[in-house]
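Before relying on records like the one below, remember that each one covers exactly one chain. Contacts with other chains, cofactors or solvent are not represented anywhere in the record.
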Amino acid sequence: MAKDLELHLMDGAGPAGEIAVRDLAALTTALQDLAIRIGRDVLKAPGPGRTKQYMEEYAELRLRAVEGGSTVLKFSKGPTDKLDVGIPEQQAADLRFWEIVEAIREDRRPGWATDLIAESVAKFVGALRDTAPRATLCDSTHSAVEIDSGRIHVETWTSKRVQTETQMKATGRLEKVDLRSHEFRVRDDVGLAVDLKHVEDDVAAAKLVGQWVSAIGDGVLASGRLVALVNVAIEMLPDPARGLEKDEVLTVAELLESAPGPDADAGLDLSDEEFAAFLEAASA
């Protein structure tokens, strides 16, 4: 049950279809570690076990080809000798892997990402920055996620997070809900996201997805920036963009009727000297 995974490196310094061995090793090692650590985190099962072994087999990457078109690294992911029967943990690991890929694109560390996962992401991000200005990652079931390497920061994944006991507030649009983990996310009007952990009355809060909300909880800071709230209460707010919308829609005819027409008495107010100069220029 192998799946294809493609990493497309664009505008790199080397010839198309080639990659320095050093960069290849850094990218592939970090990507492999990331997939394995996400699988382990989903399981949270210490010690050996058949399910854990299966998850690690599912996370295994094999480099299948290096192709041109800039440089495309093609991987096979997962075992080749097992039936295509997904287990819930496998599906959860796959969802979290692509959530991490989206978070890399957004230069944002999800609140659920453990230090080990963040360590692998930081290595992958650093390798991307050293290898190519732009990259995309996709597989057979996920469209390409484009990453602007110059705009992502290793510090996003390495900065120490500090949970305060101070109540802080984040406002924005509620865009993510995970009722199993009680985790949500809110994004403000400039694109900054704050993860919400342990949301109170999460079933009611889930009905507010897509709405503008206020979230209050214990602040979690990274490099002095609010990145998460814990033990959160969510309240719906009026959408600030709604006041900018016009309820009245005018037809073309109404717009033309309201527009000022030509004024017979209007014209240029010229002095005698300016008028004489105009006549002289017109007759030249």
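Helices lie at 21-43, 50-59, 88-106, 115-131, 155-158, 202-206, 252-258, 272-283.
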